[in-house]
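queue> holo job accepted (S-adenosylmethionine)
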Amino acid sequence: MSDFSDRVARLRTERRLTQRELAESLELSRQTVSNWEKGKIEPNIGVLAKIASYFGVSTDFLLGHETYTTQYEGKYRQEGFYWGRKINRLAHEVLRLMTPERPLRLLDVGCGEGQAAVFFARNGYHVTAFDIAASGLAKGRGLAKAAGVHVDFFQADFLHHELINDYDVIYSTDVLEYVPPEKRESVMRGFREHTRTGGINVLDTFVEKEFIDTAPDWEHDKEFYWQTGELFSHYRGNWKLELCEETIFDCDSGGMPHRHCMDMMIARKMV
Ligand SMILES: C[S@@+](CC[C@H](N)C(=O)[O-])C[C@H]1O[C@@H](n2cnc3c(N)ncnc32)[C@H](O)[C@@H]1O
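queue> job finished
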């Protein structure tokens, strides 16, 4: 399969569209979509632009040219789990606040090596999870297989990817620092709009403190500190803050002990 056929098939299935539905939206035949996905044909430039616009991704992404270059791509290729197997406290909070007594849909944004996604699937959630690092997704798929659960893992860049489905839980930990300030409102709006009523957004991010040095593995061209309280300010009106905390903790990622300040939040959509 070519990069294009792989990506178009993934985008379509993530949005739970049939080949016919996608074809109709693009005013093409179902056979054309089927042939793309089999790698038999590729679209011309005009159609490629139309597909990119329809899915809210770049044409480079569709063609597989967009390089996935967070530092984690390499780190996740190494043996073992870069982030270990410990489950974040916020993941346990999800279980407490949104116990899956009925089928609940959960999205893990920037899922890394998939530990949390698999944890949720083992606890009965219907889990979709994506990350920009293909190597992390491969680990996550292995973990899910070993646990005998299904997780809908796919590769995407949240700076381009527009959500289509709605979720009961949108969960993203240690990721939002990768969203530059000018993109924050649109990314957060996407989370808010794609949360079902009664559902929750479970998020954290690093905040800037003058008295804390920047972590040694900070990616200066890609990571951006948030301001204290900034995260919470995206959840007003019909959102109730179930948890809203700022904490300072020790960390040794990157091989050198350092400290972080983090804002953590769980917000529930009331209407
Ligand atoms: C610090 S790791 C956290 C991983 C995971 N959430 C966890 O808590 O173990 C940050 C993750 O964000 C992903 N990431 C960074 N920028 C991204 C983007 N633009 N789109 C999707 N994922 C991204 C990285 O590949 C990495 O896996």
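queue> The longest helix spans residues 134-147.
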